[in-house]
Write a structure and sequence with these properties.
The protein has 490 residues and is mainly alpha-helical. 69% of the residues lie in helices and 4% in strands. The longest helix has 32 residues, at 96-127.
């Protein structure tokens, strides 16, 4: 019987076929997606006015701090899997790092399909601007599982014609990605131009119809430092964090990036800075045309979130609203495409390391990409399309903050201490300040918002079940921590 490592070594290898331009464009279309087009009213509702711009600015600063952390790790450890590789190496590949990296893959089994599903659901939601019957609810159900130690775990699912559209988009994306990485690199550039064209048109329309009095019509006490202000800022930063996420996508493709020591940090930081500027300009331009009180009402009811369509309708008329709706749909699809590509490499990296199911280590013999991982991710993401969008976003952010980002920002400091000799083509600027600020910012988002306990319960359950599954597998296969016990007895 051959070991998993021997099988992986004899399988086809991945191609380093993505340069700086392709990697940056993939990151940007992943970051933008449908998020800012549908979540802007949610940020305004959280802050209670145009001071919501603070949420976007704070989210951008947090992304830069965490981006510096990820850039150092990505340049030092340019392997497929991104955070899986980093967590394993930071905490010890044969000790705690094995458990923590497994927990990362375990949470990715939930968060990656949720992330892809939010893009598909948002796409279907904007398609409802053309066909309102897509929002017709045929069935819905709210379920709650009461756990004595965790409280109620609530799940809501819904069936509409839009749900079917979301599922079909998910499966179509899998079909497009079922090919060689060099072909995908060319396709990412085409999608990038579509994304930039949409954002550029929105900004141009806003600048030519700019109303400063409307854009900066702050309500009384907008900047009063109070509990309500801080709670609103925490809620706004949660949504903004969701919209900025994706800058690390290039790290999932570490084995497929040309000159990764230089191109990974450059692509990562460039995409954050460019997208942050685009987000802020777009938000100011839309606030200058659409009164923030209308967006506040939409955000509070979680309906009628087609703010970009309303914006274009007021500036140019119905034809522009219909056209920009189509462009937003293309942008959303580009994000789903990029997410599916990046996340499909994470279980592949773990399986090659022997820390996940062996089938996920298989590489297509002709096109040389992890086809089993891609197909499995697509099926689970299609199932997640039956969730409500707002529930999927909140659960996604909290689960990943607890089981990935907090551990990673702490781990980069530990790695500097434990492995000072590790080659680091890129070193975090102003070390360790960005890592400490990112850690504090993530804690602020977790606990400084309304009803924060709900999503934290989900993360706690995922953490506990992941530890149990890992311990069972480790015991059966005599891996850490049971391997140490077996060796001492021998």
């Amino acid at each position: 019987m051959h070991s998993s490592s021997e099988s992986a070594a004899s399988s086809p290898t991945l191609i380093r076929g993505m340069g700086l331009w392709s990697a940056t464009s993939l990151n940007m279309i992943d970051m933008i997606g449908v998020g800012p087009f549908i979540t802007m009213p949610l940020v305004v509702a959280a802050m209670g006015g145009p001071q919501a711009l603070l949420g976007w600015i704070a989210g951008a600063l947090l992304a830069v701090c965490d981006g510096l952390v990820t850039a150092e790790l990505g340049a030092a450890l340019p392997k497929s899997g991104g955070s899986y590789t980093y967590l394993r190496e930071m905490y010890g590949p044969q000790k705690w790092g094995r458990l923590i990296s497994f927990l990362f893959i375990w949470q990715v089994s939930f968060s990656a399909p949720l992330s892809i599903a939010t893009g598909c659901i948002g796409l279907a939601g904007y398609a409802a601007y053309y066909w309102p019957e897509l929002d017709t609810v045929y069935a819905h159900h709210d379920a709650a599982l009461h756990l004595p130690w965790a409280g109620p775990l609530q799940v809501s699912w819904i069936v509409t014609p839009g749900t079917a559209v979301a599922v079909l988009i998910c499966l179509f994306t899998v079909l497009l990605l079922y090919r060689r990485i060099t072909a995908i690199s060319r396709l990412s550039k085409i999608l990038w131009f579509g994304v930039m064209g949409t954002i550029g048109w929105i900004i141009l329309a806003g600048l030519t119809h700019f109303n400063a009095a409307r854009a900066f019509d702050f309500p009384p006490g907008a900047f009063t430092l109070s509990h309500q202000f801080l709670t609103g800022l925490g809620g706004a930063m949660l949504v903004a964090t969701y919209d900025y996420w994706g800058y690390y996508n290039v790290c999932f493709l570490g084995d497929e990036i040309e000159d990764p020591g230089k191109n990974i940090p450059r692509a990562l930081l460039l995409s954050i800075l460019l997208v942050a500027c685009l987000y802020l300009m777009m938000n100011v331009c839309i606030l200058a045309v659409v009164p923030w009180r209308e967006m506040l009402a939409a955000g509070q009811t979680n309906s009628g979130l087609y703010v970009v369509s309303l914006f274009m309708q007021r500036v140019y008329g119905p034809w522009a609203a219909q056209l920009v709706t189509g462009l937003v749909i293309v942008t959303a699809f580009a994000s789903v495409f990029s997410l599916m590509l990046g996340y499909s490499r994470v279980p592949y990296a773990a399986a090659r390391d022997g820390n996940y199911f062996r089938a996920f280590a298989k590489v297509h013999p002709v096109y040389r990409f992890p086809h089993v991982s891609l197909l499995a991710l697509g099926v689970v993401a299609a199932a997640c399309c039956f969730l409500r969008l707002k529930d999927a976003i909140a659960a996604l952010v909290v689960i990943r903050l607890i089981l990935q980002f907090l551990l990673q920002t702490l781990g980069v400091i530990l790695l500097r201490i434990w492995r000072p000799d590790l080659p680091r083509p890129f070193r975090m600027w102003f070390y360790p300040l960005p890592a400490l600020l990112a850690f504090a910012g993530f804690l602020f988002i977790l606990f400084n918002r309304e009803n924060w306990q709900k999503e934290v319960r989900y993360a706690a359950v995922i953490l506990l079940t992941g530890v149990i599954i890992y311990m069972i597998r480790a015991w059966k296969e005599s891996q850490w921590p049971f391997a140490a016990a077996s060796n001492s007895k021998a």
